[in-house]
Amino acid sequence: MWNDAIPSYSTFDPRSYTSDNDQDALNSEIFAISQLKINPSTNAPYEYFATNPLIPKYSFIDDGTETASLNGTNGDFGFEPAYIADEDLRVKYVYAGSPADLAGIKRGYQITAINGSANLSYSDNDDLKFVLNAVYYSATIKMTLLKPDGSSISVSLSTASYTVNPVITYKVFNEGSGHKIGYMVFNSFTALANAQSQLNTAFDYFITNGINELIVDLRYNGGGAGETAEYLDDLIVPAAKSNTLMYTQYFNSNLQADKDPLLSKKYSLKPGQFLPVNNQTNFVKKLSLNISRVFFIVTNETASSSELTINNLLPELNVFLIGSTTYGKPVGEIPIPINKYYLYSPQLYVENSANKGDYYSGMTPGTATYPGKLAADDITKEFGDSTEMLLSYALNYVKSGSFALKLPQGLSKEKTFSVEQSRAVSLALNKHKFKPMIFRKK
Questions:
Q1: Could you tell me which residues are beta bridge partners of residue 171?
Q2: pLDDT in the model for residue 7
Q3: Quick one: DSSP state of residue 239?
Q4: Beta-strand runs (E) in 115-199
Q5: What is the pLDDT of residue 15?
Q6: In the chain, which residues have pLDDT < 50?
Q7: For residue range 378-413, what is the model confidence (pLDDT) as tens digits?
Q8: Do 294 and 322 touch, CB atoms closer than 8 A?
Q9: For labeling, which of 122, 188, 368, 422 is most exposed (least CB within 10 Å)?
Q10: DSSP symbols for 375-418
């Protein structure tokens, strides 16, 4: 995307980046390239990642693992952890059919011991490394977990491959006075071939039950396939907007001028293929849901294709965001195969029909651009529990027209993280996860 900042070979030698293995060497080279282009709005590189300045915010080299996950196949324990306080580690979600699900683990369970150790503090660097290694870089794990009812379970898990259902749950709330609200947790923009039937099932249920309000929970959705984001937008957008502009992809000046030596070695390209006029996508209404507003639940993990989904709808109907500032990634990738690896780096920039797309610093709920409510995540409750904090704000607004809410009693303020603390903790815990907005060559 930012080719104009790359120096000549005489001042930038890619072969000077070495490591014990090819992938690490390539990633170190990508990091150096990624930090060259400066965002004038921040005076920092577009790819500066404040939580971990030693890795790019967007670019990386994949050995095929992430590419496989986009197709809906994971090979892990099937759960994600999150801290809600320094020594309070929770399960934030579980995928159906995964090892964690088969062991009976649920969202909100507190992890009290891992591999026999109860030292799981976030503020202790050694403890945090131990947790990260056990959860993300091990083939087996033993855990003791505390349930909301006070009982404990002990489980032993091994990583396994399973097919991801990106729709973790969906339901309808009948709040009276004509308020019928559809709620869906959409957790990953897997390839459309994997996600479409799951989305259709949820939206068919909403339509059958006559909903007139919609809440889409994207709080942990780090992105994925752009085609799936387009499909979700087509399900949500009012029917009157069908066949109008959804968004435009913008490529760099070299690509628009058909100067594409690397891509042309990998793909069969046509003259003018990268011009904006040839990279516009229109809405094509799917199914029959017709609503005038939508609520999105978001956090700092809401990224890329999730933000694309939201941005595309902003000019088309009333959009409210509830949660914390999103990741900030208005750029996308076309994965480029290089030997046995794939290069993921920003190659395009997106703008909606109102020519808006500059959200590199994320989308902040409760601002003029993104109306809604700024609030911390609530990991103590299961998805779809009407007393869960972020969902409660949305339900309350539908009923009363206000986000004012009497907060439920919970942990004391001395023990829980603030919105900004939660953001920092979550980014640190999830820095290994990539935030894709993947487009296949058209």
A1: 183
A2: 86
A3: G
A4: 140-146, 152-158, 160-163, 167-176, 179-186
A5: 86
A6: 409-414
A7: 999 999 999 999 999 999 999 999 998 765 544 333
A8: no
A9: 368
A10: -----SS-TT-TTSHHHHHHHHHHHHS-----PPP-S-TTTS--
| The CATH number of domain 78-158 is 2.40.400.10 | no
Among left, alpha and beta (phi > 0; psi -120 to 50; other), residue 18 is beta
What pLDDT was estimated at residue 409? 47
Question: What is the pLDDT, as a whole number, of residue 429?
Answer: 64
Tens of pLDDT, residues 302-355? 999 999 999 999 999 999 999 999 999 999 988 888 888 999 999 999 999 999
Pick the CATH number of 167-329+351-436 from 3.90.226.10, 3.50.50.60, 3.40.1570.10, 3.40.50.10070: 3.90.226.10
- 396-412 b/e (C-beta count within 10 Å ≥ 16 → b): bbbeeeebeeeeeeeee
Contacts of 351 (CB under 8 A, 6+ apart): 247, 248, 250, 330, 357
| Amino acid found at 201 | T
Buried b (16+ CB within 10 A) or exposed e, 240-263: ebeeebbbbbbbbeebbeeebeeb
- Which segments of 77-153 does DSSP mark as H helices, in order? 99-102, 125-136
Q: Residue 78: which of 168, 7, 2 has the closest Cα?
A: 168
- C-alpha 30/C-alpha 248 separation (Å) is 26
Q: How far apart are CA 301 and CA 222, in angstroms?
A: 6
- CA atoms of 245 and 406, how far apart (whole Å): 41
Q: How far apart are CA 277 and CA 251, in angstroms?
A: 11
Tokens representing 391 are 């969902």
Q: What is the DSSP letter of 8?
A: P
Residue type, 245: L
Token representation of residue 248: 């435009």
Query: For the chain, which residues make up each domain, given as ranges?
Result: 78-158, 167-329+351-436
- Contact (CB, 8 A) for 17 and 28: yes
Please state, in angstroms and rounded to a whole number, the distance separating the CA atoms of residues 318 and 315: 8
- Distance, in Å, from the CA atom of 175 to the CA atom of 47, rounded to the nearest integer, reads 44
- Per-residue pLDDT, 412: 39
**Half-sphere exposure of residue 442, counting CA atoms within 13 Å on the CB side?**
16
Question: Pairing relation of β-strands 318-323 and 372-374?
Answer: parallel
Find all residues with CB under 8 Å of 389, minimum gap 6, and list them.
375, 376, 377, 378, 381, 407, 408
Q: Which two tokens stand for residue 153?
A: 């379970």
Q: In 3-state terms, what secondary structure has residue 434?
A: coil
Q: Is residue 392 within 8 Å of 386, Cβ to Cβ?
A: yes
Q: Are 151 and 57 in contact (CB under 8 A)?
A: no
The candidate with the shortest Cα–Cα distance to 298, out of 227, 220, 246, 356, is 220
